[in-house]
Structures are given as C-alpha cells and as structure tokens.
Amino acid sequence: MENFRTHLQFLLYFLLFLHSLPFSYAKCTDTEREALLAFKTGLTDPSGRLSSWRGDDCCKWAGVKCSSNQTVTHLDLKNPYPQANGGIIDQTAYKASCLAGNISSSLLRLPSLSYLDMSLNDFQGNEIPAFLGQLNDLTYLNLSFSSFGGEIPPQLGNLSKLQVLDLYADSYGGTAAAELRADDLNWLTRLASLNRLNMGFVRINTSNGGDWLHAVSMLPSLVELKLQYCQLQVLPQSLSLGTNFPSISVLDLSDNSFNAPIPQWLFNLTGLRELYLRWNFLHGPVPSEFARLKSLEILDLSNNLDFGGQIPGLFGSLRKLKVLDLSANDMNGGIQEFISGFAGSPSSSLMFLDLSSNSLEGQLPDLLGVVLHNLQHLDLSSNRFWGSIPNSVGEKMSSLKHLDISYNNMNGSIPDSFGQLSALIDVNLVENSWVGVLKETHMVNLRSLENFKLTTDSSNHSLIFNVPVKWVPPFKLKSIQLENCIVGPSFPAWLQVQNQLTSVTLRNVGISDTIPGEWFSNLPSELTFLVLSSNQITGKLPSQQLKFPRLSTIDLSSNNFEGPLPMWSTNASVLYLQDNKFSGSIPENFGKLMPRLQKVYLSQNQLVGKIPSSMCDMQELQILSLRNNRVSGEIPDCWYHSFMFWAIDVSNNSLTGKIPASFGSLRSLSILLLSSNRFDGEIPASLQNCTGLTSMDLGNNRFSGVLPSWIGTKFQSLFMLNLQLNSFSGPIFPQFCSLPNLHILDLSGNKFSGAVPKCLPNLTAMVEGRSGEVFEQLLLVAMKGRKMELDAILANGNGINLSGNNLTGNIPGEITKLSALRILNLSRNQLSGEITNGIGDLQHLEALDVSHNHLMGSIPPSLATIASLLHLNLSYNSLQGRIPTGLQRFNDPSVFIGNPSLCGRPLPPCPRNNGTLITTIK
C-alpha cells in the first residue's frame, strides 16, 4: 500500500512537471507538421529563416508555437530585420531577409491557429488569400508592410474571433507595389470582437463617401482605428443613426483628403487618448469642444494649411495631454492666450509642443517656461516671433531636450539662464537677428548638448562669442553650425577639443587665423559635413588624403587658403573651394580620388595645368566650375558616361583646341560657359544632341565658320546665347528666330553679313516678357559665389547685341514688335535707311545704340516717349534735322556727334533763314 501511494505521488509530480513545460516543447501532430512543410514549399526564403523547419517536432521550429495539447496556435514569421525608425534602411539586406512567394491553403490544416504574423515581408503584389477567412480560431492577423496587392477579400469578415487586424499597406523596404484596396467595407461589420484595426495605405473605394465611417463604427469592441493615407475624401459632419464608437481610444485619419471642418461627433469620443488628423485639408478655427476630450494624451492636427486662427487657451484644461502638434497650419496672432491656458493647471503634462510653420507673432511670454516646465521638445520655428528668449526657458525647463526657434525675427539676446538647460541635446536658433555677447555662463551646464545651430542676420555681426581662451566646454558636440557671428579672429580653442563632430559649419564668423593642423587629424572618421566658408582663413591644408570616408560636403570657399587642392574623401559629393589661393595643377587622378563628386567648384584660384581626363570617370558629376584660373591645354574628349552633367563653366582660362565632340553625349547639359579662352574651330554638330541647353556662352574665343542653323531648331529652351568676339561669318539664319525662350542674344564682334532678320518678333520671350526665373536659378547655382558677374549677365536680359559685324540693309520695322526688349545694340555695322517711327513702341527699352552705321533721315519723335530709356547712342550716322524735344535729357553731345546735319540741344542750335528754320523734310 505504501509503495502504491509512493508511485501515485511520483506519477502526480511527473504530470505536474509535464504540464509546467512551455508550449514550444509540445510535439505537433504529423498532419500539422506536413501542413507547415507544404506552407514552406510555397515560400521563397533567401536568408534561410525557415532552415530549422525539419525533423519531427514542428513545435520547436522557428516562429511556431503550440498549445499543451500539441496543436499549432501561433505562426510568427515577421521579418526580424531591424526597423529603421525613420532612418535609411539597407534595401539589399532587407529584401534578402524577406519571405516571398505564395501563402499555401495548407494552413487550413492548422485548426487551432489563433495568431498569424507575416508582416515586413515581400509578397510582390500578390493578393491576400481568401481562404484566410476560414481560419475560424484566428484572433490576431498581421499582414502589414508585406506588399500585398489587389482587393482585400471580404471573406476576412468571417473571422468572428478576430481581435487584431493589421493590413497596413506601405511597402517599407519591399516591392513598392501593387495597390491594396478595399472596394467594400461591409465585411468589417461582422468582426464583432475586433479591437484593433489598421488599414493604413489601403485605398478605400466607397460608393458613398460616408460608408467607411458607418462600417467601422459598427464594431462595438473597437479601441484602435488607423485609416491613414487611405485616399478618403469625405469626412461626415454627423453620425448616422445607430453609429457610435463606445470604446475608441486611438483614432488616426491622417494623410487623407478631408476638406471640411473638424466634425462635432469627434468630441463625443470622450475616451480618446490619441487623435491624428495631420496632412488633410481641414479648415476653420480650433473648435472649443476639444476641451471635452479630457483623456487626450496625443493630438496631431499638423499640416492642414487652412486650419487656423489664434490658438485658444483650452488646451491647458487637458491635464493628460503630453503631445500637441499644430505645425504647418494657418495659426496666427500671439501665443499669450494659449500659454495662459496652462496657468490654471497644477502641473502640465505636456512634453512635446510643435507650433512651427505658422504665422504666429509677437514676443515669447515669460510664462512659457513657468507653465510648460515639463516640456522635452519645443519647436517654434518658421514663424514671426521677435524679441528675446524668456529667462524662464532656462530657469524652469529643466527637462528640455530639443529647442527650435529657427527662421523667426528674434532680435534680442540669449539670456544667461540658457546655460542651465542641462538636459538640452539639440538647439536650433538659425536665421534670426540675435544680438549681444555669448559668454561661458550661456553654456556652463549644457553637458548633454550634442547639436548646436546658431546664425544671425548676415548684414552685421551683432552676436559675439566671448569665452576664455582656455575654456573647456562641458559638452561633446556631434554637430555645430555658426554663421554670421563673431567667433574669431583666432580659430576657437574650445572647438579644438570637440572630437566627436560629424558636422561642422563655421560660415562668416570672422576667423582670420590659420587652422591648427592637428584639428583636422583629431576630427572623427564619421565626419560627413565640413563648411568653413566666407572667412579669411589663411595657410595650407593637409595635403594627404585624410581618413573621412563619410565626408560628403566640403566647403572651404571664400578664404585665403594656399597650396595644393585638398583631396580628403572618396565619398565627397560636394566640393566648394572657389575664391581662394589654391595653386598647382588638378591631380591627374582627381576623378579616382573623389569619384562620387556631383558639384565641383574650383573657380577663382591660381590653378594651372590641364583638366585631367580622369574627370570623365566621375559618373555622378553634375557641375564643374573652373572659372578664373590659369588652366591650359585642351578639354579632354572623353565625356561619354557623364549622364548627369548639366553645368560646365571654364571661362577665363587659357584653354585651347576645339569643343570636344563627346559633349554631345551630355544629354542633361543645360549651361555651357566657355568664354574668354582660346578655343577655335567650329561648333561641333554633336552639340545639337544637348537639346536641354539653356545657356551657351562661347564669347571671346577664336571660333569661326558659319553659325549652324540647328541652334535655332534644337535649343528650344535656350535663354542666353553669347557668341561675341569670335570670327563667325555668314548670314544670321531665320532659324534663329525659332528660339521662344531666348532673353539674351549677343552676336557682337564677329563677321556676320547680310540683313538683320525680319523674323525677330518670333523671339516670343522678348515680346511677352516671360520670366526667366528658372534659368536665373540654374545660372545662380552654376555661378555660385559670383553674384556680381551673374548680375552683369542678367542686366542684359531681354537684350539683342548685333554690333561690330558687317550687317547691311535697313533696320527692320518688325523689330519694334519686341515689346519687352530692354537692350538693342546694332552699332558698328553697315546699316542704312531710316529709324522707324515705331521705335517708340519699345516702351521697356533701356539702352539703344545704333552708332557707326549709315542711317539717314530724322530722329523719330517717338523715341523721346520711351521713359525707361537710360542709354542712347546715335552717333556717326547721317541723321539730320532737329533733335526731338524730350531727348535733351541726354545732355552729352557724344550721343549725337558725327551726324553733320543734326542740330539742336545738346548740339549747336539749328540755323535759321529769315526767321525760318532750315530743315530737310522728306
């Protein structure tokens, strides 16, 4: 009997032990094992995530969980690749870890399956299988971020036990695919147990705009509803009978096309904790009924451009509110009322406040830091605030981590209390007009600071850094941006101990010192951004290739650096070295040392030697500027793979030879500036392939031959054509009148012959006066840092200069139809005939020069009616008669000299015979 009792006790303990084992140790049935293997067969698994799916015990396989009675209940095949949290993911690595293929109906042989997660995979536009609606025990279904396409099968409505349905249809890193859509939402109404629904990025097509609201409101257990980016257009202003959301706590309707006020029914959802309505077209003022949502913790109403008015004080009554985002709306006025609304609360819970990109104005109230002392994130950027930062921000906001007041009109000082923000990580104060002195006390306790951005009005240096020479900051910065304030003249010693910097901008900060060589070597290899422009920094730079493998932007422009060009990073995409004293030649292996360069500005230096052919290997090159150097030799003819190359400026050098035929392969070429060199030959026929050309300047070279007529037919986007001071000959073909966007035409100083084309009115930009803003922006980029030269070019806008040629015949009357013309120079030709009286139609004309021709007749009186005319030269022709009244404002005789039969002020008076004026009347 005793033995029996002992055996029974042992058996009970053994059974309890078995019961205590985790589900994953239960052995599944052969039927379910075979079902899973059949399911695996339908999938592609490039990274071998399912390699453990072998052997008899499928409950031990990756992603599989079983119940105590040996049945499979969980299938979790979510992609384990780490999500990027808004950062850039490695697409190749992500796709390699994705499951793809087809979901097999063998899953129906898993009768107890309650949990299925296939998220973050790549099913490449395949439809969601309808048979999933037969998995009757399913409580959790997640197919998000998996690139499913087609219509959501309504059979999913049969899953009566389903509690969580996540069909979020953005592709994450998979196939940017096929669109997932829902043509009918009636199937949703049968999911009585559903408490979480996410159909973000699903295109919801409903015959009646309000159907979506009726369908989801019939889910009595719904707690969380996310319908962001569903292309919804109708936001019903009232609920239909029987419609309610008794349990809803999270509602996301952002990124749709709602063009309406915020509906009143929302304010009946008093259990709401999170409400997202960003990126719609909501309009009207902020409803006062928001005060009823006492449970609200997160409210995002950002990016509704017509949603505005003054921000009310009601938000202060929402004691649980932690996040408030009203950015990118039309909020206006001051924020005194808004801030005062929090004064009645014993302690505000608000941790995140974004009011950026509105039209808010006024001074920041000192109450700001007092009542919002728990803030961790404060963004007031891109408004019209002015004055100083309140003392209370530094004194009370001890938890503040992120502060952004950039792009405002702040014109006061930064208080000493700013230095008490010991939790501050990021501060952005750029594009304001700060004044005063920054001292050690401003930064004494900023021990958490990582990113510091501060710029002032560029017109003066009204902010000065004044810290002890041996001051050691309490922080370790990762990025710093200081512009238009005084940090120099010496290179700051406190910056030299910052050895974790990945981004450095010190633009126009008054440094006129040399940079200690060890500073460059102490910078971390993670450095990505280096800008030291617009100072007076002197000396040579380290010539060796420094180890900055991630450095993408190098801007040392507008200084006094000397010596060879710095070759620091194989990863650089931007190299701004213009306006210095760099000398020597461009390294022959330049293209191999910096193969990823997109923008290369080396202008205004003392460079010599040739343009290296290795530049042709820089397949990402977009802009090359070598202007104002002493570069010589020929341009290498190897530009066959530079498909992104759109701007070339090698003006004012000593280059020779012909335009490379390979330039014709630059199909993206927009700006070609070759002036003031010694190029010769003809314009190559291959250049006509560059049909996007907007500016071609070949002036002051030795080009010759007849001008190709295809310029007028191929270059339909041409804004500026400058061929002055060459040896082009032959007629000006009528095809040149087919340039509808031409604003500047300069063919002066050549050997053109024949007549001035009568078709000039076909230059419609000079008739209609269309804006050349797009071209100006392109040219501004290409001529970076050369504003005076750019202004000189644009000053000739809507101008024609045909002077210094051998043109004959009359000035065509048709030229007066160019009603937007500002500059006309036909001087030093062989033109004859009279100046048409229609010249007065050119009411925007600012400069007219027809000197040194053979023009006859009287000066048209209409010329005096052109009020905009500032420069006039009619000298050395055969004009006659009295100078018309009104032209006496040109009081310089040189304007009219060389016309023996002209008279009247400012020339000598006209002669009289018996009181009668002697004139020649035709």
TrEMBL record:
Gene3D superfamilies for this protein: Ribonuclease Inhibitor (3.80.10.10)
Compartments where located: Cell membrane
Pfam families given in the database record: LRR_1, LRR_8, LRRNT_2
Transmembrane segments: none
UniProt xrefs under InterPro entries: Leu-rich_rpt (IPR001611), Leu-rich_rpt_typical-subtyp (IPR003591), LRR_dom_sf (IPR032675), LRR_N_plant-typ (IPR013210), RLP23-like (IPR046956)
Keywords: Cell membrane, Glycoprotein, Leucine-rich repeat, Membrane, Receptor, Repeat, Signal, Transmembrane, Transmembrane helix
Main location: membrane
Family to which the UniProt record says this protein belongs: Belongs to the RLP family.
Protein name, entry field: Leucine-rich repeat-containing N-terminal plant-type domain-containing protein
Organism listed in the record: Linum trigynum
